């Protein structure tokens, strides 16, 4: 709740203005039945048409004030809710971009998405609602009781006697119903996750004829969500009808007792009519309060989920100023060990060092830990043991912005955004057209001119380019920044042999000072590297040049014989 208060605070004066309008509007609403009773019991018996018109006019005026006050207040409420939620979403998004990768793993992406969308929507709705009816309902409830006391205290006693029943329902709802919504939101996360996985992998699912399995998997989660919804809704379903029932019972009682009192001359008929109105107003206010409680509880669950993210651990951006030591190796892994789950290591005791401009090839089957090494180098995760140094400085001591700016990266399935080719290559950096064109040429992305040059259109996720074209687009992006360290994650896998050779030549020629790290499963992509690291199950099986490894590393020799055939022998 503190979260919501913190975000609403800047709009406090607007909020106070809106609430004042609401307050007076509501008082007018409350005043109207009283005025009606007065007209019926005191003015009508005078049989003076002028007086009746006068009071009729006053009633019209009251309704007008109530109407306009409520409209203004509701508009203000919507604007405060909109602005506060916009800021929550803004901060939340910013925070997500700064979260450590470990935190992102912990929350999971689908959960982050629903926190960003569904949860902020619940918060939006609650902020608006508290202002619209959160203040109105208590005024109607308390004010209504006070006014009825002055009208007819005996009838008021009837009303007060009913309140504990109402309170009981409110208590039941908040104890039983509210926790159910927390569970429901968790399951919705699950649903989002499955939909997301499915849609991302829709082609492969179709290709492998897994559609039926996936349908069933989805159906199971869908069932669970529906069951939770049913459970929560069936508790909540008790609420309104029970309140309505009590209301109707109360009205019957008021008419019954009221008629006897009018007969006995204890009270006027106008009073009874007004009392009926107040009775409805008061019980409706109670009903509204239970509705607010439901929504409040949903929003509370949501604000906790948002707060969790806002309190999540951030990447440490500080670090001393980076002063590279020209004597030290450019990139150095020193007995690096790391585990995602902190139980079994995913990479273990990795050591190698590269001079500026050298090329490293990392070879290994999927799941060997190749990408993990890159993530550690980029400091998406911190090593558990050992150290990674760039220019002699531990990456933990390099300011994060400086560190990340050193890299040009081509990941597999990397992000291509909707926009133009130029925008995708520049990616918000200050890069001139000439530099971009040079990068395109070096990346062997000659197809760009056929696609409309730098202004050419890119649809979402680059779907209007083939796999190989996408890779070269990403490569152009990586090269355009003139990086110190270039990382190619199987970047050449979709390139034909000739293009790959041209690319290697262009890299050698134009990027002599760039240290290049290539990840590959194919030996041909890395056999010319200065250093080759062979990985299997996170263990280093060998470090050296092609020739050295052919001598010393049985695994490398085996892969070479498999992939290159006899040509090396
Ligand atoms: P490669 O790039 O060689 O295919 P990875 O470095 O991606 O291999 O994966 C190495 C191991 O680490 C695998 O067993 C994989 O399951 C695990 N792993 C990768 N990313 C994560 C993650 N975010 N959370 C937990 N385990 C992970």
Describe the protein's topology.
Layout: H1 2-8, H2 12-43, H3 49-98, H4 101-107, H5 109-134, H6 136-151, H7 153-200, H8 202-207, H9 211-237, H10 239-263, H11 269-310, E1 331-338, E2 347-354, E3 359-363, H12 370-377, E4 385-390, E5 393-394, H13 400-405, E6 407-410, E7 419-420, H14 421-426, H15 433-442, H16 447-450, E8 457-458, H17 467-480, E9 485-489, H18 497-510, E10 515-520, E11 531-536, E12 539-544, H19 546-552, H20 554-564
Parallel strand pairs: 3-10, 3-11, 6-9, 9-10
Antiparallel strand pairs: 1-2, 1-4, 4-5, 7-8, 11-12
The structure holds adenosine-5'-diphosphate (ADP).
Strand content: 5-15%
Q: If strands are numbered along the chain, what order do they take across the biggest sheet?
A: 6-9-10-3-11-12
Major beta sheet summary: 6 strands, mixed
Q: Round the mean pLDDT to the nearest integer and report it.
A: 86
Number of strands: 12
Seen as an oligomer or otherwise, the chain set is single chain
Rg over CA atoms: 35 Å
Uncertain residue segments:
none
